[in-house]
Amino acid sequence: MPDFLRKFIGLLLLFATVGIAACQAMLVSCSSSLPAISSILTQ
Amino acid sequence: MGRLFLMTSLGLLVLVALVLLIKRRFSLMAERYQGAPARFPTTKGLMLFVLPLPVLFAAIGALGRGNLSNLFDNAVCYGLFLWGALLLRRGLRTEADYTRRQVAKAPWPLKTLGSGVIALATALTAWSSAQYSLPIAVVFGGLALLGCYLSYGFDPRGAKRFTDRDGVDTTDRVIEALTQAEDSIAAIERATRDIRNAEFNSRLRRIVAQARQILAMLEEDPRDLRRARKFLNVYLDGAKQVTEGYAKTHGRVTAPELEDNFRRVLTTIEEVFTEQQQKLLETDVTDLDVQIEVLSTQLKREGVI
């Protein structure tokens, strides 16, 4: 496999796994805080 | 949801392609403008410090909400990501040193360890913070490990050994001599920072540059080590001691004689280092001459010339 392609696939995998897991963790954290924020706003 | 994933994947694909293109463009520009290749590419491995940043934001969010367990999960995951990235970067640096040297011991498997820690952090983040199921989290970890391997590779195994003309393995001796010389150069550089004199600083910078060039020549061909023994044991060590002594003393005592003596010593050191460098180059030329002579004699004997 050419070096460039190997690195491209490697970077893609890292973006896909680390990036998605980290963003999903942030989304879960934000979504659990949304009801609290909305309840504060409605009050 | 499916559409969102498709869009995210497409975005990631474009982002990765852009990053690779920019890196390629930068390295081409650097090659054009740089005389000697850099010792270690400074940006390599930095991406793994940036990618897990959302986990840090999640931890901050959890702190804001006062959710202790969520805060703990995210903080541990982010800590693991950071530790893995640091190990990987240190591994890349030791690998660059290993590649540069002709004689070297096999480095510690820091890159492999770092990749393992990053894979563990990814799996843990996917399972505990992102709330994926355990098998999916394991798949995340495995793919992250594969990604690290494909992007950065694993550590080189096996020492680059060196045997002298008598067939004796002198790897340890060569590595020890080169490490000591590097330590001496680093000590001269440290002492230079304490000397507040522009002339001496520039002279010392030149001396350090010369010493590094000589060391690079010795690293390229450790057979020269025997010829450069005096340079390593006497001159370099002496230069280190004198510079350290002057750096300590000149702040407390103002003596013009001391400055003159130090200037004279630095001039001598510069001359000796230039002489040493010339000697090593001449040896290379002599070796090449002998090789050419041997080859031409052989060709004459076989009737080719």
Automatic annotation (TrEMBL), chain A:
This is Lipoprotein. It comes from Candidatus Competibacter denitrificans Run_A_D11. The lineage of its organism: Bacteria, Pseudomonadati, Pseudomonadota, Gammaproteobacteria, Candidatus Competibacteraceae.
Automatic annotation (TrEMBL), chain B:
Pfam families: Halogen_Hydrol. The keyword Membrane applies. The chain crosses the membrane at residues 6-24, 45-65, 71-88, 108-127, 133-152. It comes from the Bacteria. Keywords: Membrane, Transmembrane, Transmembrane helix. This is 5-bromo-4-chloroindolyl phosphate hydrolysis protein. It comes from Candidatus Competibacter denitrificans Run_A_D11.
